[in-house]
Design brief:
This protein has 157 residues and is mainly alpha-helical. It has a domain of 104 residues: Up-down Bundle (de novo design (two linked rop proteins)). It is built from six helices and no strands. α2 crosses α5, α3 runs parallel beside α5 and α4 runs antiparallel to α5. The longest helix has 35 residues. The termini are far apart.
Length: 157
Amino acid sequence: MDGKETEQELGVLDLPYDFDTLIAAGSMSGSGAIIVLDDSADIVEALANIAEFYAHESCGQCTPCREGSLWMSKALHRLTSGEGRKMDADYLLKIADNIPGGRTICAFGEACAWPVQSFVGKFKDEFVAKGEAGEARRAQASAGPTAELKLAASPQA
């Protein structure tokens, strides 16, 4: 080369894996772990698994981490078990946004918030859809039997 800088656009999978490059690309390395999922993976399930790990591993010494990691894990379990709410995506972000920022003794609290912030930030529609499906299922269940079912169960039929 002639000593001049050149600019080249790279796909996210072609980026060098270092903190500065990932931050410049709008991502982060977080705790340094790489999770590779294909497009058939359930993002909500994947995050629920990660959140369960963090809730289990929290030492429990500081409240934001102890309670926040548990609340996030419970909300994600609610979503993955069909009991979710449409507002759970925003609820998860609110919890995750209140853990970091010097509120915990060590970096574990920040580390447990980062996946939630990242997953929900990038795939919020999937979390909302799970919540809406849970609300719809509960609404249908509370509506009682359909007219056809009532007619079939009627002694007059």
